[in-house]
Amino acid sequence: MADINQINESAQSFTASNTKDLKSQKTDAFENALSKALDKTQVHEMQNLPTTALGEIASKDLNIINSSDLVSGKTDKLLKMLDSYSLKLENPNISLRSIAKVLEEIKNNAGSLLEETQNLTDADANLKKIATHTIVTAQTEYLKFQRGDYLS
Questions:
Q1: Statement to judge: residues 85 and 39 lie in one domain
Q2: Residue 80's pLDDT is what?
Q3: How far apart, in whole angstroms, are the C-alpha atoms of residue 10 and residue 30?
Q4: Mean pLDDT of 131-136
Q5: Mind giving me the DSSP string for 45-105?
């Protein structure tokens, strides 16, 4: 009986190894076929591709604004607000409460302009001087209004 068990064991191991070999051959055959197909398509694709370098890609919405342009625009806006404020002060039909809201906005814009003015270089000294004078004027008007200088 010992001999029969050895024959069955060897037959089972032979069948198992033979099955593994068949599976690996099938898997290898598929992998080989796939690799060959991919190699052919990659070679074909690479041969048709031009080798020119990419040029610069322009952006439609990218607008770079330097500090001097930003300060100039904010200074202009603040001057227009101060002009509108002075016209409202002269008009007796406009209440001081409605002017107070405008003056708060002027104060906030002056603070924002002051922050931007600090980023200017020495090349923009004249612009910095104009912006600083505008800021001082806006802050002075705010203090005068809060102090009650315009009450009659």
A1: no
A2: 96
A3: 30
A4: 96
A5: HHHHS--PPP-PPPPSS-----HHHHHHHHHHHHHHHHHHHHHHHH-TTS-HHHHHHHHHH
Residue the block writes with tokens 């322009």: 58
Query: Which residue range is the domain that position 8 belongs to?
Result: 1-52
| Per-residue model confidence (pLDDT) at position 62 | 61
pLDDT at 21 over 80: no
The residue with tokens 């060959």 is 36
Distance in angstroms (rounded) separating the CA atoms of residues 125 and 121: 7
pLDDT score of 22 more than 90: no
* Whether the Cβ atoms of residue 81 and residue 135 lie closer than 8 Å to each other: no
Query: What predicted TM-score, i.e. pTM, was given to this entire model?
Result: 0.56
Q: Collapsing DSSP states into helix, strand and coil, what is residue 7?
A: helix
Contact 141, 106 (CB under 8 A): yes
Task: Judge whether 115 lies within some domain.
Answer: yes
Q: Are 106 and 85 in contact (CB under 8 A)?
A: yes
**What pLDDT, in 10s, does the model give residues 52-91?**
666 776 666 666 668 888 999 999 999 999 999 999 989 9
* Within a domain: 57: no
